[in-house]
Each structure stands twice: as structure tokens, then as C-alpha cells.
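User: I'm putting together a small comparison set for a docking exercise, and I want a reference complex before I start. The sequence is below, and the ligand is adenosine-5'-triphosphate. Could you produce the 3D structure with the ligand included, as C-alpha cells?
Assistant: Of course. I'll restate your input first, then give the C-alpha cells for the complex.
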Amino acid sequence: MASLQHSPSIKDAKVLMVGAGGIGCELLKTLALSGFPDIHIIDMDTIEVSNLNRQFLFRQSHVGQPKAKVARDAILKFRPHINITPYHANVKDPSFNVDFFKQFNVVLNGLDNLDARRHVNRLCLAADVPLVESGTTGFLGQVTVHVKGKTECYECQPKPAPKSYPVCTITSTPSKFVHCIVWAKDLLFTKLFGDKNQDNDLNVRSGDVASSSEHADDAFEQRKDEDVGDYGRRIYDHVFGHNIEVALSNEEAWKNRNKPRPIYSKDVLSDRLPQQNGTVDRSSATDNLSSLPAVSAMASLGLKNLQDVWNLMENSRVFLEALKLFLVNRAQEVGNLTFDKDDQLAVEFVSAAANIRAASFGIPLHSLFEAKGIAGNIVHAVATTNAIVAGLIVIEAIKVLEKNTDAYRMTYCLEHPSKKMLLMPVEPFEPNKSCYVCFKTPLTLEINTRRSRLRDFVEKIVKAKLGMSYPLIMVGHALLYEVGDDLEEDMVKNYAANLEKVLSELPSPVTGGTILQVEDLQQEFTCNISVKHREEFDEEKEPDEMVLSGLTEAPSMAKADDHSIENGGSTSNALPANVTEPKMDVEVEEISVGTENIYSAQKRKLPEVSHATKDVVSGDETRNHKRVQKLDDEDDDVVVMFDHPEVDNHKKQRLQ
Ligand SMILES: Nc1ncnc2c1ncn2[C@@H]1O[C@H](COP(=O)(O)OP(=O)(O)OP(=O)(O)O)[C@@H](O)[C@H]1O
Ligand SMILES: [Zn+2]
């Protein structure tokens, strides 16, 4: 340590850390102990109780305070002379522009989402500052080095979309518990407590049956003077009873499938539910009651163990109680809620609804603990992996500062030693010549230029696919659209009018053969898009009526050919927990990282085994490349499957 602290590369270094969560806390500690004198930290979060088990710089008393600032204060207690500058902010904030990034010798990411990672990647490229990128999920982890022109950038390799499911599986023919969870979370929860204007496929589709949507839409509105308890039962009967009956009336759909069973509240629950544990009957809510703090349905009902699998009656009671608590105690949030795995009442509602639906479709029921894991795409964090990854980040950062290019390694942390190795170092890849980010390779967009509006293009392509926040769109020298605070009023009006025009009717028409230049002013990132006019699109397969190709984005692991719904985490792009432990092979399926977690698993050929690897393996190279692969979820449980040389059979392990 002493020798490190005197290393000139460290002594003069100014580094930027993005993210002060699981990896970030470990990283800041390791940087401080290694002698880094000037550290800037950006983190947009405040501390939550659930962070305390592994984000060891934080204590109970810090809950609610900004992570970046508390992390700094904790470090200064034992390294008072270090310069630590905290920013409680989103790294996408415009003040963190290219000039801001240029002041650093290296940027170190400890983030938990793809969006922020892509943003930092682009700023590092624009500012020409090396980036050390990282991520962990459970025991798996990864650290990669990205130096402009020398190694691949963060976006050179495909990042698969979060797992998604065909809409009809979710709405009509669930066969796994995860399908019920997605239905409860993305459709029912959103319909009842979220944005009412959002498209919602909640109602059961049934080919021959005349759509009951008229009836259905009314069903979700609480009627004037309707008691909240009665409303809950009506919703229950509608979604678990009526909708299933509608679905069943389409005989054709059930020829080769097990028929679901309609469930009505009167068959499961007695008319009068006993009040437990002193629960107030809030069905006749008063203003006083609406000021009660957020509550838990299971607590009201005296259900204590998260790991118990509740029966249909218990789930039904939790469902009704949770619905009531939302409407009475959290009325102000209703209409704006999105599912959040850290929102206890939301988890209770979703878990109960998913279980009732599972009961209807003959799918095994699950505990709230398991349901939460599936709904939140949770792979439980392992503090040790974060510590190892943080150490590896610092090792790579030092190599970057010393410009020791040949020594750069991407390192994968594995769950089980293979040939006695838990860490797999690999030489970095060269930049990918077809990368639209670092190689500026043009993209191609198929679109109906006579039907799609500029707004569709901006929302669905520029923002959603290209990850741009402050876009500017040009054809030749003509500006079609831009955002910014300093725009003149008539420009703002022009751009607003352009947004509503179809592409071919813009002042500078966009038609087949047009090259659109799209730029993000903050990221200083430009890409060219070659437009191809296409008349027809497949409603199911291409619902956006736009097909962008040339992106380094892998297809979703689920059937990518179907209109689908994701089981995306609320804030992250974490994979569902079905990531397999690598098998020794000649390929690596790279784990790129999503939350503090890993989100992508792409097959890629490894170059020669790095020297470091050879050393550890004592010469036996050929079998020592790792392959990490994501399985299709054949199981309802959150499982990790291992295919390991030392273990003959696949071994399933439930996540703890
Ligand atoms: N755009 C962003 N700007 C700044 N900080 C970000 C951004 N996106 C994510 N972060 C930060 O990255 C950190 C990631 O840490 P981590 O993966 O441990 O997540 P967490 O939110 O602390 O924990 P968990 O998700 O498990 O509850 C978080 O502290 C989060 O605030
Ligand atoms: Zn690239």
C-alpha cells in the first residue's frame, strides 16, 4: 500500500466515480486507501435502509441523506486530507458536460443501469478520457477498460434487451408464475394505480368473442359513492372472474391448453372479513385516515412470514386489503404510481394478484419473498463480489494512469472456481468497426415516411433506442428539431409544429434515401441514419412501425418476433436471475453489467488467453475460457443454473 501511495500516477490523478452504491462504496474506500488524492463522486440517490447491508459507508442514521455526500464524510474520517467532491445529481445533468469530464484522468463507473452507462461512455469518448466500467450480480462480476481508439467502447458489443414476453401469453395464456407477475405488475397495477391514459392490454383477448372493452374500461373506475371494499371486490370479480369467463368462451383457444378457472370473491372469502390486529375498517374513510403513513396489507392482516406461500384465500385478502390501503392511505399517489420493488404495499398487491391469477391458471403459488424477487428482477447482492470488483477497478485505473496499455484486462468474476480460477482476465477487444458510437457507422431506419411523425421518431428511436436526452436533428444543413433552454420562441414553435408533422411533409422532407443527422448536444455524439421508406409493417412484430438496424443491440432473449412485455426492473436493466455459471469452453459469453448487476450475456470469441490467465491456470489454456449464458426460464422459480466441469449434472440453486 505504501508503495502505491507514492506512485506518481496515483499522486497526480484526478478521478471521477459515477455511482456510490454497492460497488461505489467499496471503490471509494479502495481508492482512498490506495492514495488517490482527488476524487469526485456523482450519485443521484439518497440512502435507503435496504442499502445498509452492503453499502458499508452508510449507517441507519444516514437513511434519507445523499449517498455521495455521506460516502465522502465517512472516508474523510480516516483519510482527512483527501479531496473528495460529492455531487448529489444525475450524471445526465447537463452540467456534467464534455468539459467537465475532460478534467479527469480516468472515469470509474459503479452504476446500475444501461442508460447511465451509455451516457457516460459517450461523454468519455467525446472528452477522450478512459473509462473503467463495472458491474456485479450476485457472485458474478465484471470489470472492463475502455480507451478511445485502443479498446472497444462500452457500446461496441450488443446489450440484450430485458427479457420480454409475448403480450398474448401475459394477457391470456400464462403458463409460468413470471407471466402472472408481469400481468399483475405491468397491467393490473398500472391500470389501477398508474397512468390511466397509458395503453394497457389488461383485458383478456379472445379472438371470437366480441371485445368487452367498453364494459371493461368502465369496470376499473370507482363509482360515485362506491364503498372502497365493494370496489375492491368488484375489481377482483372482474379480473379473476369475468375476464376469465370471457377468455373461456373462446373454445378454440383452449383446445390444446388447460382451461383456467374463473375465481369470484364470494367463493373464496366470506361476506364479512374479520378485522385483524386492530385494523381499522377504512371502508368508510375519513380525511383523518388518509393522512396515515404508508402501510402494509400483510401487517394489517397479521401475516408475518414473507417466505410462507399463502393460499388462495390469504392472497385474496391481501389483494383486497392492499387495494384498499392504496385508495385510502395513498390516494394522492394513485394515478402516478409505477411498480417499485422497494414499495412494500406495491409488492404485496402484485404478489397477491399474481398468485390469484396463478391459482386460476393452475400454476403453483409463490411466497411474497419469491414474488418480489421475480417482479424486481432481483439477484441478491453479494458484498464480497462488490469488493473484488472495486479492487479490480482500481488495478485497471492504475494501469490506465500509467498508460500500461498491454496490461489492460477485462476481468470476469465467476461463482465457482474452474481450474482453480475465480477470476478470468481477458485482453480487451479492439473497437468494433460497426459500432455506431465509437466508429460512427451509419444506422438504417425503415419507416413509413408518409405516416410516421417526427415525434414518433424522436421518442421511439432517438430517445428510446439511441439513448439521447438533448437531441438535435438535421437533414443536410436544415434543422428539424432541437431542445435547449436558450432557444428563441419562434424556433420553439417551429420545432413543436415539426414534431406533429409526418416525415415526408417536414419543411425539409424526410423520404427514402434521406440521411438524417442526429446529435446529442450534451454527449457531443452524432450519428447518421439512412432512411428507407417502407409502406407496411407487421402489427404484432413491428408495433412501432420502425425498424432500426445497425445498432449493437442484441435481440431480446424471449421470442423477439412477438409484440411483447418486459419484466424489466423498476429502475434497472438487470437480467432475471437466470444467468448460468460458465462452462469451460472456447467462448466467453460476456456478462455486461446492468445494475450493480449484470444485464447482458453475449457470446463472443476470446482472443488468446491472457498471460495472467495462463499463470493462474498453469499452462492449461484450452479449456479455460468461460462461457456465461442466459437460459430461457424453464422454471417458475428464480434460479441460477450451473453447468460446471466439477459437477456432472445441472444443479439448480435457489437464490437466497
Ligand atoms: N444516472 C445516474 N446518475 C447518478 N447516479 C446514478 C445514476 N444511475 C444510477 N446511479 C447510482 O448508481 C448506484 C448504483 O448502486 P447499486 O447498484 O448498489 O444500487 P442501489 O440503488 O444502491 O441498490 P439496489 O438497487 O440494490 O436497491 C446508485 O447509488 C444510484 O444512485
Ligand atoms: Zn464502440
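The chain has three domains: 8-161+380-426, 167-200+224-269+295-376, 443-549. Confidence is low (pLDDT under 50) at residues 205-214, 274-293, 554-562, 569-656.
User: Thanks, that's exactly what I needed.
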